[in-house]
Amino acid sequence: MPHPRVLYWFRTDLRVHDSPALHAALALEPQCLYPVWCWDPHYVREARVGPNRWQFLIQCQRDLSASLTRLNPAQRLLVLREAPGTLLPKLFKEWAITHLVFEKDTDSYAAQRDAEIVKLAQEADVQVITRTGRTLWDPAAIIKENGGKATMSLTSFMKASKNLGDPPKPLPEPSSIPDPGDLSLSFLNTVPPTVIDLNKLHRQKHDDESYSALAGPNSDFAPPTLEELGIPESTATTPHQGGETVALTQLAKLLEDSKFIATFEKPKTAPTAFEPAATTLLSPHLHFGSLSVRRFLHDVQRVTSAYKGSKSQPPTNLPGQLYFRDMYFAAQHAVGPAFSHTVGNPVVRYIPWHLPSTMPPSPTAPYTIDSPRAHAWFLRWAWGVTGFPFVDALMRQLRQEGWIHHLGRHMVACFLTRGGAYVDWERGAEVFEELLLDHEPACNLGNWMWLSCTAFFAQYYRCYSPVAFGKKWDPHGAFVRRYVPELRGFADKWIYEPHLAPEAEQRKAGCFIRDLEDGGLLPLKTQAAGQVYYPSPMFDFAERRDFCLAQMKKAYQVGLHGDDPRVRDGTAKAELFEQVESSENTTTASTHKRKRTRSTNEAGPLDGWVKKGKK
DNA sequence: ATGACGTTGTATGA
DNA sequence: TCATACAACGTCAT
């Protein structure tokens, strides 16, 4: 191949440092290099992406574009507004591409898409080169070492990875890149049909205009703006910044504190710490690839080996966190698309949760409202108005900033599922998908299974208390005061349980604790103008914990997994869990009636609270 | 078969 | 600041 013309397809590798795929592209000694980002409708419309993550992504794209220009003034990131499946074959022809290069992505959707793209490239006589780069090890290689089985514990993962040797050393940033070829485009873009638009809720300004022109409104291939996407800038409220430059600066700063790096123990870091947080906050960069996971590992190992003194070990140290990430990627790879839900998933335990996913999946009615009460609990959880200050503080921090500490995620996930509301973990995973900057499908899904004790973890009797767990880390409640400002005036004694404060204390604190009306879905009817209120707890936690514990015990005895045919056809709940249903249902309609009146939600899952709650 | 272990629980009592 | 009961899960090494 004398004059390779390379299309480098950027996806979740928005960086120029340690990019094995970019190095592979440059090793071809190309005559020209096209650095392309395709505006995949899977991301634009089908995945749940909140304003904060849109902003973070755009920042990553802009920073990458600037880096490419630094490496060659004629270069920039070419953002094209069309689906890869229809766009890439046209580009192969238009730019006489000889090689397509990209970093492997083993997420379920991406793997399927990439297989199709590889086929299209072969049909166009374009050679495809891929490299593993998103994880420390290739998930497929890990699973092969693990005998084809999903890695369900860190022990099995570590054993499998040991046979593969150390992860590759990080590669340096290239000193230069070749010119692009001719950038003219002789065709208009094909606008993908809108079948699903899970992000419609966020497009308050106007409809999505990201597909209005192939190379952007100014024909300059620029990354989109929030304005173009119809998302008001004011709704992106995160203080966290995207981009490789920010990521590497943040990493360098962390590495200066060798004691922090070498003695890091995750369970000893406080979920209540803010400004600064107790952990590295590098996870969003790992997701978008603005930081290489191998670069992170290598730098941590270098600083740790130079550190004099006793050091922390996996699984609690910093490398241990990265191993867990890889473990989830490998498990997802082994299970396939079913990893994202219960039905058909062989590794997940079946629990007859409230608000189960609709089968077959439907984007307009994603779940069944089997219990209006549980639905209200779910919405109140998602919007941080449960009446449990620690839970609400965490959920509001998540919504505002797009990041909460790992242990905080444990707390709210346990609370929604096996330790409180008894709501399906898939509902919680969807809310996290929308709000987290660092949303990594494999890790998010894996951790939700972990915390709901449906896979990876089974000690369901270890249950987090929304009062005790907060107090343990932050006895004075500074974290609660920061994110639930209406409670600021309460004394430490009441900060985690303000509903127990006498009326006089509430008056002194300038905030009254009152029940929400209509089963908790509506704000108070009787509130006075100018008066500040905070809701009473949405349920008796001790009572709910006991109930959940009993249900979990029963479900473990029944012992069904997601791939059981009785789970798929819906008979499992009816035939094996009748007693579960009736034992909880003491106050509302009978089991019989509820089953017949089961309805699905027409609006988006969070529609109810949004408008009414915001007033 | 058996026992140790598993990243990160809570309440109680000394 | 410890230790222990709570009621008791799955995985892995032996």
In CATH terms, what is the fold-level topology of the largest domain? DNA Cyclobutane Dipyrimidine Photolyase, subunit A, domain 3
Question: Helicity, in percent?
Answer: 40-55%
Structural class: mainly alpha
- Under the CATH scheme, which class of the largest domain? Mainly Alpha
On the 0-100 scale, what is the average pLDDT? 91
- In total, the number of strands is 9
The CATH homologous superfamily of the largest domain is called DNA Cyclobutane Dipyrimidine Photolyase, subunit A, domain 3
- Give the total of domains: 3
Organism: Auriscalpium vulgare
Protein name: DNA photolyase
Question: What order do the helices and strands come in, and which of them pair?
Answer:
Blueprint: E1 5-9, H1 20-27, E2 32-38, H2 41-46, H3 51-71, E3 78-80, H4 84-94, E4 99-103, H5 108-123, E5 127-131, H6 139-145, H7 154-162, H8 226-229, H9 244-256, H10 258-263, H11 283-288, H12 293-306, H13 318-335, E6 368-369, H14 372-382, H15 389-401, H16 406-416, H17 425-435, H18 441-451, H19 468-473, H20 478-483, H21 503-509, E7 512-514, E8 533-535, H22 541-558, H23 565-568, H24 571-576, H25 578-584, H26 591-596, E9 599-600, H27 607-614
Parallel strand pairs: 1-2, 1-4, 2-3, 4-5, 7-8
Antiparallel strand pairs: 6-9
Helix pairs in contact: 4-5, 6-13, 13-18, 17-18
The chain binds a DNA duplex (14 and 14 nucleotides) through residues 152-156, 265-269, 271, 314-317, 320-321, 324, 406-407, 410, 414, 453, 457-465, 468-469, 472, 549, 552-553, 556.
